Write the structure tokens for this entry.
Amino acid sequence: MVFTSPVRHPLGPSSTSLAMAVYMSAATAATATTHSRSLIQCGASSSASLLSIRKNSAIRCVSTAAEGEKTGGKVATVKNGGDELVICRVLNGMWQTSGGWGPIDRDDAVEAMLRYADAGLSTFDMADHYGPAEDLYGIFINRVRRERPPELLEEVRGLTKWVPPPVKMTSSYVRENINISRKRMDVSCLDMLQFHWWDYSNPGYLDALKHLTDLKEEGKIKTVALTNFDTERLHTILENGIPVVSNQVQHSVVDMRPQQRMAELCQLTGVKLITYGTVMGGLLSEKFLDTNVSIPFAGPPLNTPSLQKYKRMVDAWGGWSLFQTLLRTLKKVASKHGVSIPTVAVRYILNQPSVAGSMIGVRLGLSEHIHDTNAILSLVLDEEDMNSISQVSSNGRDLLKVIGDCGDEYRRT
């Protein structure tokens, strides 16, 4: 069986100016998933001073060292109060099932998921709008139940996202949508529900998160989390007593925005970061070292939604020439340790404060990088390595000023 879903990531590409060139448009996002959820982009976000956040904060400070985070371990614990979840520090990202990378063979994809899990890479990240991702997970988890020892079943984690339109968030509406994901993934309790909201001017996100917390209390969700929320709204959510454990944000050696305002609040509150875009869709690799993509047919094609998206991020940060300097620096570090450029790029982000885990996209049934991915978890970068990478990274533009805080690229018109 082949899936050919036309659904694209709701944060798909568009550009106008230097800042807007990195933004991903929701307007082209959704045609139909199997459950016909609509996706709408509107509104604009604003920023608040972290100084004022701290001054008015009623949020208590907590211990912030996640399991494995400072020890180089393979797992980390994201937690808030009594809610906690152990995840692999390198997560298998399933955006690639959403349609922009070609057809997906169901059986080949599930077999690939089993190989990743058998290799210890047992945390899968998906979303309601990633084509058949949740359905594939449902088939996969049933294979694990039938064909693998109970110990592996205990290790497997399925993290999904809900990306609703900014309509009235009633209890029944939230429950209905979460039940769709539970049914598709064939689980009674979602390990993690990561919530995205398009329009901050509509405060319905707080209603939705309160209803999600109710579902957590009922045992239908184990942990509630966020995706692409900014620092100001994360603070507001925590002050409203909503026990989110993590925020999934774009974070790479090029995009260091999360290490500014967001990481500071995370360190104060214990909320963790799960990062995506960490290898920039494959741009941070040997494939693009010493190439010139501005000349037609002279370099590797930018032929996937993620490559196109992150090329715009490179342009906003400092351009292709500076990016080549960065790749050469990463290659020097990689050669020193006998690993690849993407392995170093991910390890660098995993070493950043408050980062619990980083996403690596998996092209299920099409290509596999299990060995390189596992190498991330054993790689130790020394102070010289980290400093050399940080120096080149800091030579680019401050993307917090160019784009805004985490997630702002998805809310600007």
